Amino acid sequence: MTKQYDFCGWATKNDLKCSDGRVIRRDAFKEQNGQVVPLVWMHMHDSPSNVLGHAILENRPEGVYCYGKFNDTEAGQVGKELIRNKDIVGLSIYANKLKQNGSDVLHGAIREVSLVIAGANPGAVIDGVVSHGEDVEDEFVLNLCLEHDGMSYEEGEIDINEEPVFEDDDEEENVEHADNDKGEDEAMAEDKTVKDVVDAMTDEQKKVMYFLLAKALEDNSAEEDTDEEKGDDMKHNVFDNETRSNVLSHADMDQIIANAKRGGSMKDAFEDYVDANFLQHDDDEPVNPYATVEYGMQNIDVLFPDARAVQNEPVLVKRDDDWVGKFLNGAKHTPFARVKSMYADITEDDARAKGYMKATQKKDEVFPLFKRVTPPTTIYKRQKFDRDDIIDIDFDAIPWIKQEMRSMLNEELARAALIGDGRLPASDDKINEDCIRPIMKDTTNSVYAYNVEVTEGADADATAKNFIRSAIKGRKNYRGKGNPTLWTTTDFLTDMLLLEDGQGRPLYETTEALARKLRVKEIVEVPVMEGETNLLGIIVNPADYVFGADKGGNVAMFDDFDIDYNQMKYLIETRCSGALVVPKSAMILVKASNNGG
């Protein structure tokens, strides 16, 4: 029984730029000359029905030529009909073990030949269909040939397994060459085609030719298999998931579509395919730095719905500013900017009332009188935008911008009053501390500084316990109004809440329980205090702090339009003063190292 080959064509051609940028160079697959590889549909490996037959490879100077034979399966016969009707003319290879120099492919191993709708290599096409019937008018035969020993043979039918059979050994015929001088006969011979030569051969000569051809192909294939066995310790089927760190694969689109059906997303399926280190080559290449895929619709992401904002305005990423409102709203506000505070110290013995003895002179009371004047300063925030940008923004950006400016101005004002703005004295942007007096840095007449003694190397629990003791004991020196508030950091508040008794139970179940222990109204977390290394907390009632501003000096927003530069400009500012006006109205608790001496 003879095996008839159904078509032939170029599996790949040399020195042509593929759609993925690779260029396959001459003899890149020369070791596979004569090797038989599977013939599959669109490089699909997920079902045996995708194997349509096999192909014999032939290395040529121009590239790798192949002869394809379809199997008798339903899919194989469909493929055969597609080829016969010229519905499919594209071929593609899948190869691995590639060796490259830049984009040049110098060596590799072809694992399969595939029928594809469109291949990456522009020269990889079917150029011949072999007719096996008697009617050949609608068929065409091209290039099915093999050069051997200086002679060319061409036929669409090869017997791989059958030994040559001679009708009579004594009648064995040899190919003879005409030895007459050049003349008319020689000129006619030179005009003969390869097909004419083959047609002139007897049946027995053809059998010998076909047998030698098939034997050479089998020997070459066996030699290739032997070389692979020597070099590899593990065998992999061509459809196994082998490691493909450098793989050339043409037209795997159907595999991606199948994955998309299972996963629900074409985009995800494509990204997964790229992550698996496969390269898909097709004739049209969407912009992708890793791989190219021929979709039924290129750049399909154009049809994806546009992203939608879940908020009408951008969310401001900022520090927790709940404490700002509590401080500013709790402080006292006056309608004048220059704040003068006066007080007299009557704690000395000279200020005490005295007893009188007859016939003695009465003594005058003596006590000091103090005053302090705090002038105003200006605090501001300024923004500018191109009017074109403001118009193009798809929401009303101006109120959002003004809200941000007011929020940051309030935070800076509260920060300057509580601990200072933190800028260096030489900075042009520093808020004058003689105008907005920081409680943390105020004079001893206004605040009482209390050192929390902490042994060097003490843990967080020891520091927290000593702080609580110091705050309770130092409360006797507090002279402020009403019940004060503790202003501290989140980390230090957490340390105090994590304190436990000897049984592992928390000493303070809630923040309110801890506030009652410290004899304060509430505990407020202040994120901007985290930059102050040794400051543990400030106990003060904001009602003892006064902000003063003249008429027009309150917070105001100004808008302006620069007609020359087409810019919108916004300014928010206030001109005010701020200071504690009650002596000893704040307790500053700082960590002081104790070496235990």
Helix content: 10-25%
Q: What structural class do you assign from the helix and strand content?
A: alpha+beta
Kindly give the count of domains. Answer: 3
Oligomer: single chain
As residue ranges, the low-confidence spans are 132-189, 227-246, 277-293
Largest beta-sheet details: 10 strands, mixed
**Net shape:** elongated
Number of helices: 12
Mean of all residue-level pLDDT scores: 77
- The strand count comes to 26
**Rg measurement, Å:** 47 Å
Distance between the termini: 108 Å
Strand content: 25-35%
What does this structure look like?
This protein is an alpha+beta fold and 597 residues long. The protein has 12 helices and 26 strands. The protein has 3 domains: 3-162 and 190-234, no CATH class; 322-350 and 367-434 and 548-580, Major capsid protein gp5 (Major capsid protein gp5 fold), CATH 3.30.2400; 445-546 and 583-594, hypothetical protein PF0899 domain (hypothetical protein PF0899 fold), CATH 3.30.2320.10. It has helices at residues 74-84, 184-190, 194-200, 203-231, 253-263, 266-275, 322-330, 387-392, 397-418, 460-473, 490-497, 511-518, and strands spanning 3-4, 7-13, 23-24, 36-41, 51-60, 63-70, 90-101, 104-116, 126-129, 145-148, 151-154, 157-158, 248-250, 280-281, 332-334, 339-344, 369-374, 377-386, 447-455, 485-488, 523-525, 535-540, 545-548, 556-562, 567-580, 586-594. Strands 2, 3, 4, 5, 6, 7, 8, 9, 13 and 14 form a 10-stranded mixed sheet that branches. Strands 15, 18, 23, 24 and 25 form a 5-stranded mixed sheet that branches. It starts with a strand and ends with a strand.
